[in-house]
Structures are given as structure tokens and as C-alpha cells.
Amino acid sequence: MIAVWFSCGVASAVAAKLTCEKYSGEDVRILNTPMREEDSDNLRFKDDVEAWIGTKIETITNSKYPNSSAVELWEKTRFMSNRFGAECTRTLKKGARQQWQRENNPDWHVLGFTADEKHRHDRFISSEIDNVLPVLIDAGITKAKCFDIISAAGIRRPRIYDIGYPNANCIGCVKATSPTYWNLVREKHPDIFAERAKLSREIGCRLTRVKNKRIFLDELLPTDIGRKMKSWDCGVFCEGE
């Protein structure tokens, strides 16, 4: 059995397509761990990708948190994130994957690591699991090429990319520390920015970093900028920023 973890991002979509083609005679399962805080257009993209690859994309959630809501989890645990990772990723993504894995025992995993992210793949297999099929890396497919492939297939990418976000994660992702990212959230989704600022202040979590100092979101100035936003995926394997 090959478990392909689809995150509603373009890279994992192409990885799913390639895996289904390359291993057409095997038991390939395409799995998605949705989050309530993702943009609603991710669901449209998931349906389009499902039709493209011709294989059902299964929904996987942590049985302890069937609503798969990061906000509900943060409010319950009074913890959002720290330098080791985010509670939502560990519990709602990784926890869901671990439950499914114990019940199904897949032989291989496929993730959306691209050819220009080989360092992430190498770090991942040395720290998490080593039974990973690097389908995009082996094919030499970069993140940019994934966008081209999706476009050539006639699939509109998730609108979250067009707004300027570097990935299709939840809006207001607490794994991010970049002031550039959080000011983008403030500009494009002011209600979500205000919600994250309020809850993080209540919990005591300083989500952003300015001049190498952690500060609360309500202390962030609209003029604060940081390094270029990097692309990371909030997948079922918790990877710190």
C-alpha cells in the first residue's frame, strides 16, 4: 500500500498524479487531512484534482477532534505554537496520520517534496520515517513546474496562491513568524488577523518575530517587514519552521 498525503497544495497534487500513474497496479490511497481554517476554495481544488487523477481522495481526521478546527484546539489546549512546531499540526495533522497509519500500516508514503526541496526530504527521512517514495524529486519536478503541470491540466490552482500566500495552508498559520506574512494576513484577511492577535495575546503566544525578537501580533507595525516568505506545507508530518 502506498499512502499519498494530499495537502491541497499544487506539489502534493502532482505527486498524487505521478504516483497513480507510476504505480497503477498497486494499492494507492490518496489521503487529505482538512482543516476548518483553510480557504474554502481548497475544497474545489481537491475535487478538481480527484477528477484529474481518477482516484478518490479520502478525508482523514483525528477521532478526538472530528471538527478538525485549529481554533477550537488552541482554545482547549491554551497552546498555539513554539519554536518546535504548532499544536494544530501535531494534533490535527500528524495525530490524524498516526491513527490512520496504525490502522492501515502502509508500506510507503508519498509527500509533495519537490526537486528544489531535496534538503527537506533528506531532513524528513532522517528524523521521521524513511519509507518515503520521492516521486517529484526522482522526476526532477520543481515547485514552479508543479504550477505549470496543474495549469496544463486545466485546473485552476487554489486562489490562496493568487492572493499572495506561499502555500495552501490555513489562513493565519501559526507556524509562520515572518512579519511580512502576518502583515499580508492583516491586509488580505483583517478579521482573521484580529482573531489570531486576540487569542495569541490571551494565551501568551508571541507569533511573529521582528529584528530577531518575538512579539505579539498586536505589537506588529504595518511597516514591519522580514525576509521573503518561504513556502512550507502544513502536512501530516510535523516539520518546524
Structure, explained:
With 241 residues, the protein is α/β, with parallel strands linked by helices. It has two domains: 2-162, 3-Layer(aba) Sandwich (Rossmann fold), CATH 3.40.50.620; 179-219, no CATH class. Helix content is 44%, strand content 10%. It contains ten helices and eight strands. β1, α1 (10-22) and β2 (28-32) form a beta-alpha-beta unit. The model is unreliable at 237-241 (pLDDT under 50).
Compact summary:
By secondary structure, the chain is an alpha/beta fold.
Looking at this protein, list some descriptive labels.
8 strands, 241 residues, Rossmann fold, alpha/beta, two-stranded antiparallel sheet, 4-stranded parallel beta sheet
What's the number of domains?
2
State the low-pLDDT regions, or none. Answer: 237-241
The CATH architecture of the largest domain can be named as 3-Layer(aba) Sandwich
Strand order in the sheet with the most strands = 3-2-1-6
Estimated radius of gyration: 18 Å
Annotation field: number of helices: 10
Helical proportion, percent range: 40-55%
At the fourth CATH level, what is the homologous superfamily of the largest domain?
Answer: HUPs
Q: Please identify the top-level CATH class of the largest domain.
A: Alpha Beta
State the shape.
Answer: globular
Count of β-strands: 8
Helix-strand pattern: EHEHEHEEHEHHHHHHEE
